[in-house]
Amino acid sequence: MSALELHDVVVEYERRGQEPIRAVAGASIAVDRGRIVGLVGESGCGKSTLARAAVGMVAPAAGAVRFEGHTVRPLGRGMRARDLVRLQLVFQNPFSSLNPRRRIGEQIGEALFVLGVGRRSERSRRVAELLEQVGLPAAAAGRYPHEFSGGQRQRVAIARALAAEPAVIVLDEPLASLDASAQAQIANLLSTLARELELGLLLISHDLAIVRHVADTVAVMYLGRIVETAPTSALWETPLHPYTEALIGAVPRADGAGTLPTALPGEVPDPSRPPAGCRFHPRCPYALARSRAEEPTLVEVAPGREVACWLHLPGEPPAPPSEKAARLARQAAPG
Which domain covers residue 321, as residue numbers? Predict the structure, then answer.
């Protein structure tokens, strides 16, 4: 059993007088201790909504979220259940998640107080340890959030999450607002924490280059569904879903290459009106007739690899979408 498990999670947002918007349309993902799972996809695909469902900030309309065997229930006005305290969330913008009028030592110390860490002197020592653990000096406890850079504030937010001695941290685009240098430093910090603390991390990002650097496995999300999961190196070397292939093709390279292929037009469709069949088929250069009529489900095509695509029928060996499409075209050709 994984530390954090989401099974067929559906999240809907109600609209007055209209059908609800299904932001997450049946997604499953698992996070183990000591492992980093990257969740990637374009803006609007449902990544952040899935992150909030994972920690109980939004209630699933269907499916289940479990953490260390306990059901993750929606957060209410009361204190978080003790069995879920070790499941933490780090937001994208640390400046908005930190109180600008309080010193950071007080904010981390307050988390320790809520968790029942004893006397003030003990909490002060623990705050210093947590700051040093994320690469900040103990003296930083006496400073206010505005006195830090963006990367330093994100370190503070991570330190506050670590105060709960978590088993899993969900990080919702934690690097998006940082410059390249700060992104690399925080990414390295996350790798170190996962390894040294046996900490499970669900890293939500639209930046595949960062995810490639730190994640053990990657889940690719499109229009509310997971369309591919794989070990990071395998996904990068042989993307199976056409959408994954396009995302990797769009990653800038040192030689200046890296733009979306011209065969991938348009934008993510409106989630309130998803296309029939495969949700990606209107933008897919390899779409089949079946893609327009039936929605594929995730199937295991190799150990540790799943893909939701009609190009990869059960029993066929894994291959990149371009190769698989060419083979299907040859099979369908007359004579």
Answer: 274-335
**172 neighbors 204 (Cβ within 8 angstroms):** yes
pLDDT tens sequence across 141-151: 999 999 999 99
CB within 8 Å of 69: residues ≥ 6 apart: 1
What CATH number is associated with residue 183?
3.40.50.300
Would you call 331 exposed, middle or buried from its count of C-beta atoms within 10 A (0-12, 13-18, 19+)?
A: exposed
Domain assignment present for residue 245? The answer is no
pLDDT digits (tens, 9 = 90+) for 267-312: 778 888 889 999 999 999 898 899 999 999 999 998 999 999 999 8
The SS3 call for residue 105 is: helix
Report the chain's terminal Cα–Cα distance, integer Å. 51
Q: Is the pTM of this model over 0.85?
A: yes
